[in-house]
Amino acid sequence: MNIGGLQWLDYAQAGPRKAMSLVREQKRQYLTPQGPAWVSYWPLLSGFRRAVSSPEPAAELERVIAGVAGKDDWREAVYRQCVQGFLQLLPRGATGVPAARVTWAESDLRVTLRHLIGLRLRNDEYVVVAPYCKEPPLTQETAEVLLHLMEGLIDSILPGATPVVFDTRHGRRFRLHRRTNRNQLDAYIRGLAAGYLRQWSLAA
Predict the structure, then answer these.
(1) Rounded to 5 degrees, what are φ and ψ at 74?
(2) Which of 32, 61, 79, 116 is the most exposed place for a label (fewest CB within 10 A)?
(3) 138 pLDDT above the threshold of 80
(4) Can you tell me the distance from the alpha carbon of 77 to that of 135, in angstroms, rounded to the nearest whole number?
(5) Taking a C-beta distance cutoff of 8 angstroms, is the pair 7, 108 a contact?
(6) Residues 150, 143, 15, 179: is their CA dihedral positive or negative?
(7) For range 85-105, the mean pLDDT
(8) Stretch 41-53: mean pLDDT
């Protein structure tokens, strides 16, 4: 089974009481013809990738908002909030560079990291950004679940880059600290994957 990196973050953030209902909903979404859960955010996430290579990032993202405006759903307000946060977090003078889609595997679980954004900074350093657009604010602890996967796969994503997560709704930027115990974090994530697989098998 395969889920997206942002859905993986949702699960990591859910906590034990909400995890089962979240897995049940993700299973329903991934097994229906309408497509995976991230499809509602696809225009916005794709817009972020185009914007970092555009001479006018704000104008590019305004066109994304215009594409969902007037359709009487939640996306216009949410997209606008995320765009504001993304532009605030985007390093000044950064330019877009390609970042590959990659997959992390543990047992029967595949977590695909798509919509990653490669950036070259003005000092010629590179970062890879995973934009998060959901309503619940991210914490450092939750962001590390995705950051650790990105760090382990960075040679395939964009060699030499630093992984970063943008919480676009709340204007926060997350990185892995040097003092983070990688071994302990890795064990936690693999345990999380085992829990997800078990709950998926039990979900109706």
Answers:
(1) -80, -15
(2) 32
(3) yes
(4) 12
(5) no
(6) positive
(7) 97
(8) 95
